[in-house]
Amino acid sequence: MQSPSTQPQKLTRLIVALGVGQIIAWASSYYLLAVLAHPMSKSTGWSLGLLVGGLSAGLVTAGLLAPLAGRAIDRRGGRTVLAVSSVVFAMGLAMLATSHSPAAYYLGWVVLGVAMSAGLYDAAFSTLGQLLGSNAKRSIAGLTLVAGFASTLGWPALTYLDETVGWRGALWVAAALNLLVALPIHLLAIAKHRPRTGVSSHPSAAAAASTRSAATVLAAVPPAHWLVLIGLLLTCQAAIMATLSVHLIALLGAIGLAPSVALLAGMVIGPAQVIARLLEMYFGQGVHPTWSARIGIAATLAALLLLLIGDPWVAIIAFVIYGAGNGILTVARGTLPLALIGSADYGRTMGQLARPMLLAQAAAPPLAAIALDRTGPVWLICLLALLATVSLAGSCWLPAKMRGMIGAAQAGLAPASTAARTSNDKRQPD
User: Fold this and answer.
1) Using one digit for the tens of pLDDT, what is the confidence trace for 236-250?
2) How many helices (H) and strands (E) does the chain have?
3) Over the stretch 412-421, which tens digit does the pLDDT of each residue have?
4) Where a domain ends, among 123, 154, 189?
5) What is the pLDDT of residue 296?
6) Residue 20: which domain range?
7) Which residues cross the membrane (predicted)?
8) What single DSSP character describes residue 178?
């Protein structure tokens, strides 16, 4: 069987298919309340705080279940897990559409949280890592490029649906899209899982020797050490991203900037992310993910420090820088564990990393709201800058040498061996 490098059209179809599935999943969950919270509040009489709390409940649920979803991908493959997530997304959306009490509403979000644990970026990254192994970097960048249009397409689509069929109708349409579009895409576009065969559980002598000669220091450090450091820096960044996503307008208003400036600052984030991901996809192949992560984190820190100046144009430039950094970090979120820890049990690794990130995304906005109210915008920006500094410091401890030989040795694969090539070919998409 040909490798993905000789099947560019097939690989492109896989990336586009996964990207479309991600657009539907993100628009059906994380971005849902950005459009529908106010109409839901007006219709039900429930407070915005109560409604937004549903998303927090979903994120907490997703964080708790993410490691289980990752292990399920390792055992059963991304095809099965992503397909099941589409069905569960539809169930959760149907429950929200029919909810007439806060208890029913929160139960719907818990079900959506189950779907989010198995259907967002971490699951899609794990699927690509399982199919492509260490060759997944460019594909992950391509996936984030396509899926980056989730808010661009999802927000206006949800707005139109709310205006035409109401918020309950919009939720029913989103449920139908998960069943009629995302589910078939996952079943048809993703190859069936094929367990690795003919692979020893221990490194061969040749592989071990090659590994020692390639990167002795890196091999000597347990993968769990890198997992903790990667988790630290990604969790700090997740808290920053969630805070700015929710409080951007309020934060910029509190430092004296006009609402129009805040709106423009929010609008430039998306294009900056897309441009950064394009550059990463086409020119970042030779750049180790550790350096990509450092650049992305440094961009976030620089953007936060620029905000302290309080000038409108500087603030807009700051969010261009922030958007570019966030775009690079989204790619590094998938490629950094692959490079430093390896492709063996990649789903479990991504699930372990997703748990603290999702919990941070659930906790950061309400905690930031308290900080903004009690200490003011400058202290909140400084607190976010401190998180970025901790994240950057953590990234400086990460190595920037490729772990391809090490990952192969840990999985018992000799990269130059015929058995390894055969095993790798069996894991390619068909």
Assistant:
1) 999 998 888 878 888
2) 18, 0
3) 333 333 333 3
4) 189
5) 92
6) 4-189
7) 12-33, 45-68, 80-97, 103-128, 140-158, 170-191, 291-310, 316-341, 378-398
8) I
